[in-house]
Specification:
By secondary structure, this protein is an alpha+beta fold. The chain has 2 domains: about 150 residues, no CATH class; about 130 residues, no CATH class. It is about 30% helix and about 30% strand. Strands 4-3-2-1-6-7-8-9-5 form a 9-stranded antiparallel β-sheet. A 7-stranded antiparallel β-sheet has the order 11-10-13-14-15-16-12. Strand 8 and strand 9 form a beta hairpin. The protein is elongated and about 95 Å long.
């Protein structure tokens, strides 16, 4: 074959390749445009029972993974702890009901105005970025990959786009969807109001309801303890087994909270390296009401395998509870 024919053959291959790429791009272009009135998460909606993995990347480019394990969803980066049920319910509502209400061609300027710049674009300001949500089935096949942008009306209508698409959508039913990792963890850890406490056991001493009421105005640490129990937050979470391996010799301060129903919260508070950690165990006394056993059976799973990092303020309130002589 002469050099002339080789050049012609090479040109033909290049033209054919370009045509193939252009054809693929045009098909995707038309597909992106022809979605008005369709479900925003159509592929996931059709395969909702197979949805098994969700990867979310926030505008600050913090990426985390939610994975279905059996009948529960777990937060991979939070020691495989349970996903916030309210956030999960909203996600399912969004997948099942969000519809594309408007479609328009997009460009870099519109992407920025609509908050649809991809989170991994490091040169872009955070205020121009959206939240990317990738959904996979139980074989790790991608079902949907969208970026959710700014709200149109301060409510449930938002801008959105396919991550690799060129069109901007107006979509409905976004609800409280949030790319912040904190919004996907159950919160608070405990809410034990003062009127739910029959007695506290501190330093082996039982402080009943009346005594707590009498000494609260005079002992600051009792007030701080009761305030902490009423809305107990946590800043981090770790596997209990790993924590015990790391701090095998650390002894906890133990608090028992007894409720009128006979439910007992046993709180072990650890202080290590200027951080406070908490374990929770649910128990019942001999005269507990029948529904307490069912409550423990349903809720013990949320505590038994994990240790929770407390804020310095609430950690100190629970740890520094020696009542003296």
């Amino acid at each position: 074959m002469t050099k002339k024919y080789l050049i012609r053959a090479l040109i033909f291959v290049l033209i054919a390749t370009a045509a193939l790429l252009l054809s693929g791009w045009y098909k995707q272009y038309k597909k992106d445009a022809n979605v008005l009135g369709k479900y925003s998460f159509a592929e996931t909606r059709q395969n909702i029972r197979r949805m098994a993995h969700i990867r979310i990347s926030s505008a600050t480019n913090k990426t985390f993974n939610l994975r279905r394990q059996g009948e529960y969803w777990r937060f991979q980066e939070a020691a495989d702890y349970f996903v916030n049920p309210d956030s999960l319910a909203n996600l399912y509502n969004m997948i099942n009901n969000s519809v594309i209400m408007n479609v328009q061609p997009g460009d870099k300027k519109l992407f920025a105005e609509a908050g649809l710049v991809a989170p991994n674009i490091t040169k872009a300001d955070t205020k121009f970025k959206g939240t990317r949500i990738e959904i996979f089935d139980d074989e790790e096949l991608l079902l949907n990959d969208l970026i959710i942008g700014n709200s149109l009306d301060g409510g449930e209508y938002h801008y959105a786009r396919q991550t690799n698409g060129s069109y901007v959508y107006n979509v409905s039913q976004i609800g409280i969807f949030n790319g912040s990792p904190q919004s996907w963890i159950p919160y608070p850890l405990l809410k034990i109001k003062e009127n739910m406490i029959e007695a506290l056991v501190l330093d082996g001493r039982i402080l009943n309801r009346q005594l707590l009421h009498d000494i609260k105005p005079h002992l600051t640490f009792i007030k701080e303890l009761l305030d902490a129990l009423s809305f107990l937050r946590y800043d981090g979470i770790a596997k209990l087994a790993e924590f015990k391996q790391t701090f095998p010799d650390t002894q906890p301060q133990t608090i028992k909270v007894i409720t009128p129903l006979g439910l007992i919260y046993t709180l072990n508070v650890y202080h290590n390296d200027n951080t406070y950690w908490l374990t929770v165990r649910l128990q019942m006394d001999k005269i507990a009401r029948t529904e307490v056993a069912a409550f423990i059976g349903e809720n013990q799973k949320y505590f038994k395998d994990w240790v929770f990092q407390l804020s310095p303020e609430q950690g100190a309130a629970l740890y520094d509870t020696q009542i003296g002589e």
